[in-house]
Amino acid sequence: MPLNNVGREGHTYYKYICDNYEKLPEYTFFLQGYPFDHSGNIICDLTSHINLIKNKSLEIGCKAGRIAIRDQKGRWGSCSSNGNLAFSWRLIMAPSFVLDYVVAHEVAHLVEHNHSRAFWNVVRSLTNHTDRGRIWLKHKGLQLHRYGK
Fold this sequence. Notes:
By secondary structure, the protein is mainly α. 46% of the residues lie in helices and 7% in strands. It has 5 helices and 3 strands, in the order ααβββααα. A 3-stranded mixed beta sheet has the order 1-3-2, covered by helices on one side.
C-alpha cells in the first residue's frame, strides 16, 4: 500500500510503523516505489528466507532476534551480539545452496560468536553446502554487487 510521504523515506516508514505498531504483522516488508517494479516474487523470496532462518535457529535450540534484509556491501550477513540477523538483499539472486550456507553461517553465530572449530561444526550441522557456498561466494559473489547502489 502506498504511504503518505512525510519527508525523507526513512521518516515515512517510521511514522507508518509508529502509527500502526499494534496492528502490524510479525514481518512487514517496505519497498521503495511501485511494488511491481521490483521482482514479482520478492515477497515470497523474503518470506521463504525468514522461514529458513527460523527453521535453522530451531535446529540448534536458539531463536534469532530481529531479521533484516539490507543493502550490505561488505558482507553477506551478520549476527549482532543480541542475536539480530541481517542479510544482503543480493542473496536473492544467488543459487539456493549459497543462501542455505549464508543462513547457516549467521545462525551458527547465535551459539558460537567466533569462527572457531566449534563454530564450523555448527555450520556443517545446519547445511551440506558449506564448502560449495563459500567457493561460490569467493568466485562469483562479486558479480552480485553490480546491482544496487
